[in-house]
Design goal:
The complex is a heterodimer of chains A (about 375) and B (about 425). Chain A has helices at about 20-30, 70-85, 115-120, 130-135, 145-150, 155-165, 175-190, 245-250, 275-290, 310-320, 335-340, 345-355, and strands spanning about 5-15, 35-40, 45-50, 100-105, 170-175, 200-205, 235-240, 255-265, 300, 360-370, 375-380. Chain A is α/β, with parallel strands linked by helices. Chain A has three domains: about 5-110 and about 150-250, Peroxisomal Thiolase, Chain A, domain 1, CATH 3.40.47.10; about 110-150, no CATH class; about 255-380, Thiolase/Chalcone synthase (Peroxisomal Thiolase, Chain A, domain 1, 3-Layer(aba) Sandwich), CATH 3.40.47. In chain A, a hairpin with a 4-residue loop joins strand 10 (about 360-370) and strand 11 (about 375-380). Chain A is globular and about 70 Å long. Chain B has about 425 residues and is of the alpha/beta class. Chain B starts with 9 loop residues before the first strand and ends with a strand. The chains are: A alpha/beta (about 375), B alpha/beta (about 425).
Chain lengths: ~375, ~425
Amino acid sequence: MKDAVVVTGAGLVCALGSDLDEAWRAFRSGRSGVRFVEALRDRPLKRWAAPAPETAAEELEAPDGANRLGNPQAMWLTRAAREAYLRAGLDRAAIAGEETGLFMGMGSPGWEAEDMAAAVTQSLDDRGRVDSHRFFRRGLREISPLWLLGRLNNMALCQTAIHLGIKGENGVFAPHADAGVLAVLQGIRAMEAGRAAAVLAGGVSSVIHPNGSWIFEAIQEDPPPNPSSIPGEGCGVLVLEPSSSARKRGASFHAVVSGCGFAFGAHGEGERDPRRQAFTRAMGEALDRAGLDPGDIDLVLPHAEPATEGDVREAQALEEVFGKKSPLANFPSLTKLTGNLSAAAAAVKAVLATRMERRYRRILINAGSPSGACASLVLEKRES
Amino acid sequence: MMARASRRRVVVTGIGMITPLGPDTEETFENCAHGRSGIERLTAFDPRGLPCDIGGRVRDEWLGKEALRGARRLHGSRSLRLLMAAARQGADRSELAKIPSRDRVGVAVGSFGDPPAIEDVAFLHRFYDPAHGWDLDSLKLWGGYNPVQFFRRKPDTLATALAAALRCEGPSLATVSSCAAGAQAIGEAFRIVQAGGADVMVAGGSEAILTFTCFLGFVLLKALAERYESPATASRPFDRKRNGFVLSEGAGIVVLEEREHARRRGALPLGEILGYGSTSDAYRITDTHPRGEAAAAAMRAALDDARLPPEAVHCINAHGTSTVKNDAAESLAIETVFGSLTERIPVTSNKSMLGHAIAASGAIEFILALEGMRRSVLLPTINHDHPDPKCGLRIVANQALCLPHRVALSNSFGFGGHNACLCLRGGDG
């Protein structure tokens, strides 16, 4: 009989709170983390957003050299990963760093034009164009030597690996919600093949910064825009282990990851939007792997919000899979509370799902990308 | 740990590349076999004043044939055109279009994503004031920020475009582990096919970062070679006079297929991936571990995954960047894994001729290792004039070796401490 993959720890950082307990209380009370933000990390922003709480580097007790970049993604991931690690008792467990895997979906760290603004300003010629001589003579001094490293998508994962001493198999995928589900699945495969004894898997959102995708969107002050277009920040991390190993070391668990599914729907030339088919296939594959029928699912946490095109396709797919009565509970929409969490969306939902009431035993979580990749995850609540 | 699940075998049925030494695998391999260098003075932008003014650029005329259509033309970046050029070769060779079940065909691409051009930054800065932030109203009056630039920077744009162009409706993923991204894309694709998540995966990497903004990033890190007599002699992996790597561009794509699936449709395997190992240094974001411990662990993991002992390896295609620390650490790692066998196993670095194409390098080097086995040719590491006693390896120095060989390791190590190692076998055995 196949050894089930269980969730022995979970950690979370988002606009609802700095840890899982705080975020869960906010979620159940319907408190939203979305607000009109005047400034973020010492930079004017002036838009609706759901930023993550600030984490001081000192709070994380980082080893030397781990926090030199000071990038927000590394702070969130390290914080959430530490919480998950501690809740799983991995700090006391005999699982070596070399046997622990780390797989993450990762949003964009952001190309912040402000980092180069001073350098550019000093390098303009009389016609307002960048003069490379002036740039390399004067402007370059204005840019941090580690600037390029701070722009790499993988740095947050590397910094977290340093913090926790995780040296095993790893993967970092970008940049949308499906990447977080892929991280979970690849982590499971690493364990099933005996290449890891435990895996930390999940997703990290993009960093909110003025010159991200939001720079060309209209800013509205009242009423707030569509929730899907409100950027959110955060991170969700699950600790996954084979159930036999978890039981052997006395770790408690509350959920099993029983199925994952993936599909891609391309926008072909003159073709209709095929994402409905991709969502349908992804859900079907996840249910198939879990050995479940649609009627066995107690709750669906969808990817998208109403009124966007992707949402219409997902809604059509849900109807195709579940019929007219898809099991969407009367929860406050997560996106309305946390903003659009990009690569962290599915992971944050999975973490919160581990706390949901027992009557929601089998939960299906959808994740999509604007580019057409769709993924689904089935979580079953089971006590150790 | 969990008991090992039964595994499907994964063969390579298509390959394609475009590099500074050729528009395809054949021409690149031939030029490499003759020890030619693809490194020249930079012409993509004005590098005067920079401590390094060389790079490996793909000739524009080789890209001219690659037409992009529709949305891909709109979002088409140089890295996408490189990717499509390589992918078409691989797809044609494997006859990918003839596979009927498209939901069982996926893609995996490693890439950094196109950085913003200096012209973008020069345009944008006019609308930014440190005290007041962004003046978006004025930005909109000037036409706003071109959203195409945003899409070109997204790391999944290449995977998405490739999946759409080749009609791949299975898993689609983008790896972003910097210099290991291309190798990790192949490794993760291998895992997906092995586990039954797809029957075919188109995997590899693409990079086009010979731009002002990206170049200066590596200059700031002091990672590039700054002392060289000529462009062709600047990249000197494992040589005592090495002093940094040479930035390059290119793309490499492989078509991975479940062995029985390939056999049933009559696709001829070019080789097989036997194993994949992935580890993390967990040391420092700016430096490789000086003893190469995690790199050694990645090689051991690949061999363990392949169920092969070290003595089964016939050659190693090294990461070999030509930096002082990385080459020394990789040498130690190889010695740690192979012990007394080290002096017997030939090691080579393609970066001596092609430069470092970051995410694309792992894929390009994997293909060159595969071709080497098919042709019984070990490619040279050029500019190896002063062997470094700290790199006690059997380097294939300056001239290619004609030597039949069947099993190779291909290493790729990324910024931040990612280590990826692929174990491959040539031929259709």
